[in-house]
Every structure is written in structure tokens, then in C-alpha cells.
Amino acid sequence: MADAALRLTALAEELLGEALPVRIRAWDGSEAGPPGAPVLVVRHRRALRRLLWKPGELGLARAWVAGEIDVEGDLYAALGLLAGLIWERGGEPKDTVHPVRDPRLRAAAKALVKLGGALPPPAPPAEEMRRRTGPLHTRRRDKEAISHHYDVGNDFYALVLGPSMVYSCAYWESPEATLEDAQRDKLDLVCRKLALKEGDRLLDVGCGWGSMAIHAAREYGARVVGITLSREQAAFARKRIAEEGLTDRIEIRVQDYRDVKDGPFDAISSIGMAEHVGSVRYAEYAGILHALLKDGGRLLNHQIARRPERDESAYQVDEFIDKYVFPDGELAPVGRTLAALEEAGFEARDVEPIREHYALTLRHWVANLESDWARAVRYASPGRARIWRLYMAASAISFERNRIGVNQILAVKTPVGGASGMPLRARTWN
């Protein structure tokens, strides 16, 4: 009798202590769970072996990337139901199965063995980051981490991001606006906050595929130095800049921010880059940017933030994100970021939270990916496409539910005399 789905549902409900809100379809064709709910498809019993050897999030992530589990129906609805059941009910999802310490969980592990088979652990998917050794956030390790995330093919990113080629939160006038318009509005907002004008020297830290540099040079007449650790990004950006006829105004470097020595700059933009810096380097990062600015120069720091922990020492990087998306990436509460910038000598002048804007942006990226799935798989790999679909959809829900946010912080290297050069009314930006 085919009953794997029924047994999996009973096991999950025993562990979670309440009814499972999604339906399960198992590899033997059996189904169980509430009718009409999103379906969690367990395509291969190997997924259970992954959970036995790596209980919790990493085991699930490996099964997802390998295509052994999937969601049929509305992915956002499924993730929302699972988030409400596990991540947002005050428990610790990473410790859901710990068969050594708890008799109940030992019994669950035995049940998984019967269903999945007690064979050696399956090898991790090829897309998993494995080669990081040594201290966090050295130049070499940061370069490897950035390459893992960004050097996966410019064609793949073009498909996901669309013509703007901007990989950070857009700025939406309304939900009906196009992604391209919202990204253009974000770049223009950054330029206006920095008060860029003809001839100003701008450093764009983490310049991506060159969109900010091109906008600042073309629309505001700025002279731009853009830096990235991704060779693929740099090559793409240089090609775009040449096509725009802006090679005399923009220089793209494959360079670590710690190696920039040719300040001062009139302004610095750091859009979606500081998440890669890490807590052990953030004070150094803020100090370097402060030293690279002229007196009165402005910094626009656009950065994802997490909610603060009651015990900050308990913060752990999300395993799925660390292994498959942003290796060594860390999120900090916005208050800690502000403190680090001020300790480096900056005067913080404005903080604009745009959390809901990122949820909209991510939903558009997911739609781009899903609408051209076959090409996405061809450009990257089936596993890579699955990674991006899951992380972007789950991130959209996290922004919508205020589990994470994103903020634009405008800071000034205010001279000793106190003349900041800022307008009397905030958000005038001119």
C-alpha cells in the first residue's frame, strides 16, 4: 500500500505539535494533508536521508537544490504557511530534528530511516559553496564569496533582473510601475541624495553591472570610479559603458574597497554591498569610506537590515543563504550600522526605510525567472535556478512580514566647523 505521504504528514505533525498546513505528495504517488492547499512534493526518498544527516534547514535546502523536493501551486502561499508554522512561532527551526537529545526525536529519526533508508549521506549539490577556509573576510575569501554569487553568468542575471541590470531594491512610485522605471527612480534618488553635479567625483562601491555609474555620469555629469570583485560584472559594465560613449567619465575596476587609495571623492554610493562586509570588518569599512571622502562629502549606504536579537551573540547566518546564495554575508540591525558609521566620523542625516519596495522588487525578479525557466536553467543550471527562485520568493515574504528590512542611510563627512552642506528641510535632496 502506498502510504509514504500519510506517514510523513503524521511524523511532521508529531514533531511540530499541530496540523500541517500544506499537502504532501510522496515519491510513491500517495498524498495526504488538507485538500486545496499548496502541495509539498517529495520526489525522492533521498530527501529524507539528507534530513537525517543534516537535520533542519541545510538538509531541506540540499533536497530543494537537488530537485528532490518541490512545491506545486503558489510558492508564496506555501512559504507563507510554513513560515507561520515554524519560523514565526517563536521556535528554533534549525533544531526541529535533533535525534540525539530527545527520545521523541530519536523515534522520529528511526521513522525517517524506515522511510528513507539508512544509506550513506548523499553528496551535497554541486552549487553548494565548499572551499572557504581561514578567517572571515580576508581579501582572498571575500573574492571567492563574491565570485560564487556573481560569476554565474551575465545572461542569467540579465534574464532575472531585466534591462536595468540593477541587483538591489527598486524604488516604486506605485505597484503598477514597471521594474525598469522603479530601478531608474532608485538610481536617480541616490544621485539626488548625494547632490551630484557636473564634474563631481563619485566612488561606487560594489558597482555591479555598471547601472549606477552610467546613470550618475550620463544624467548628472559625474566622473565615476566603480569597483567590484566580480570579473564578469566588470567585463559587462565596461561593455555597456563603451556602448553609452562614457568611457571618458567612468572607470570600472576589479578592486577590493580596502585597496582604493586615490581619494578624495566628492560622494560615495554603496548600494547592496555592505551586507558582504561582515561584522568583523564593518568598522574598518566605515573608516575607509570616511577617509576617502572630502570634507562635506556625502555617503549613501543602501543596506539590508535584520531585526535585532535580544542576545546579539546568538545571531547565526542563515544556512541556506550562506551555503548557496551569499557566502559569508551578514545582516546587522540598522541601529548597529548607524552606530558604526557615526563612530567612523560620519554624521547621519537621514534614514529612509524602503522594506515594502524590496518585496515588490523580488516578486518581479521571481516572475522574470519563472516566465523563462527553460532559458534560466540553460544559462546557469537546474540547481542554480531553483536556488534563486527559493531565496527570492522567501526573501519577498521576509520583507513583507518585517523579518528583514532595507534602509538608505545618508551620511555626511561634516567638517570640524559643522557646515554639513545639507538643506534645512530633510528630503529636499537638492
Automatic annotation (TrEMBL):
- Keyword Protease tagged: no
Biological process (GO), any one: methylation
Extract the ranges annotated as region (Disordered): 119-140
Keyword Transferase in record: yes
Every copy of the Polyketide synthase-like methyltransferase domain together lies at 156-397
Name the keywords, alphabetized. Answer: Lipid metabolism, Methyltransferase, S-adenosyl-L-methionine, Transferase
Output the Gene Ontology terms for molecular function. methyltransferase activity
UniProt xrefs under InterPro entries: CFA/CMAS, CMAS, MeTfrase_dom, SAM-dependent_MTases_sf
EC number(s) given by UniProt: 2.1.1.-
Transmembrane region positions? Answer: none
Family according to the record = Belongs to the CFA/CMAS family.
What's the protein name?
A: Class I SAM-dependent methyltransferase
Source species: Streptomyces mauvecolor
